[in-house]
Design goal:
Layout: H1 5-9, H2 13-27, H3 32-43, H4 49-61, H5 66-89, E1 94-95, E2 98-99, H6 101-127, H7 131-155, H8 162-188, H9 192-216, H10 229-232, H11 238-245, H12 249-261, H13 266-278, H14 281-300, H15 307-321
Antiparallel strand pairs: 1-2
Length: 324
């Protein structure tokens, strides 16, 4: 039976409760409109997976302290800022089943709120002299922006190779989980080798996490019906990249033509999904996901055994076994 998030949280349950209180306080503003919007965001937050990475990594490396709490807030503020900005870019009206910030308060306010969250997180680190955390997170912001723009650049041409794909997801997705683990470690240890190793662990988990997201588009396992959203948005995910690189030129050109010119046609999208499955794109992608899962577990097992290490391993399994 899969381990639940509540079970995974056990070694850090008290710390997460304290974090909730500190995070709400850190988000408060004297500007009434801003306070209203941030309160709305806090009430509809997700599962707090990234703060869990921070606290578990911190506890594996030492004793949780104020720097850990501030680091978790910094990561969560950055993550939330990117989600708010993403909804503006994608013109999304929903986030986690609720109206998005831009749907309720329009794009201008949403962009400014995202800017506020990012700057508030960075100022929190400066105010408390957490310069190592600031260095780690600033690098993550840089990488996330580069990854998003690289993906947009390549989407126009639909010629992404596997090495470019992995470069994109390392920057766009894995860098934030890597920074969460590194910030957790840096809050309880000054050993740069340990911090670097925890960063590598987070990056590897982040890659497996994104590959799992790629599979969602094809309705694998318990996910349900294929969505085809990535195809409609012309995102070159790993199943599609593999399928295109292992098909005859005529078939490859036909699929690329559908993605370029007929991606709004549901029947045509189903053709692409069938093509990917028939060309072993799904099987290959699952194999890659498990490769990175195993690589992450090897890194994790170099740390001393503890309840927190076990929970981080369970959190890794949770990220690749989730069905949403």
């Amino acid at each position: 039976m899969p381990v639940s998030l509540d079970d995974i949280k056990q070694p850090i349950a008290e710390e997460l409760d304290e974090f909730e209180s500190r995070f709400k306080k850190a988000m408060k503003s004297e500007v009434a409109l801003l306070d209203k919007v941030t309160s709305y965001i806090v009430k509809r937050k997700g599962k707090q997976v990234r703060p869990m990475f921070v606290f578990l990594a911190a506890k594996i490396c030492g004793d949780i302290n104020d720097a850990t709490y501030d680091g978790a807030s910094l990561v969560e503020m950055l993550h939330t800022a990117t989600l708010v900005h993403d909804d503006v870019v994608d013109d999304s009206i929903e986030r986690r089943g609720f109206f998005s910030v831009n749907a309720l308060w329009k794009n201008k306010i949403a962009v400014l709120v995202g800017d506020y969250l990012l700057s508030r997180g960075l100022s929190l680190a400066v105010e408390n002299n957490h310069y190592r955390s600031l260095q780690i997170l600033s690098n993550a912001v840089k990488q996330m922006s580069e990854g998003e723009l690289l993906q947009m650049e390549k989407a126009r041409r639909l010629d992404i190779q596997e090495d470019v794909y992995f470069d994109i997801i390392k920057k766009k997705t894995a860098s934030l989980i890597a920074s969460a683990c590194a910030i957790g470690a840096s809050s309880t240890s000054k050993d740069e080798k340990i911090i670097d190793k925890m960063c590598e662990l987070g990056e590897t988990i982040g890659i497996a996490f994104q590959i799992k997201d790629d599979l969602f588009d094809y309705g694998e396992d318990e996910i349900g019906k294929p969505r085809g959203i990535d195809i409609k948005e012309r995102k070159m995910t790993l199943p599609l990249i593999y399928a295109l690189n292992h098909s005859a030129k005529e078939e490859k050109n036909k699929v690329i033509n559908i993605i370029k010119n007929q991606s709004e046609n549901s029947e045509k999208v189903k053709e692409v999904i069938a093509f990917v499955k028939n060309t072993e794109g799904i099987a290959y992608t699952k194999q890659k996901m498990l490769f990175y899962r195993d690589k992450a577990m090897k890194i994790l097992n170099t740390f001393e055994p503890s309840a927190s290490r076990d929970s981080l391993g369970d959190l890794l399994d949770y990220t690749i076994n989730r069905n949403f």
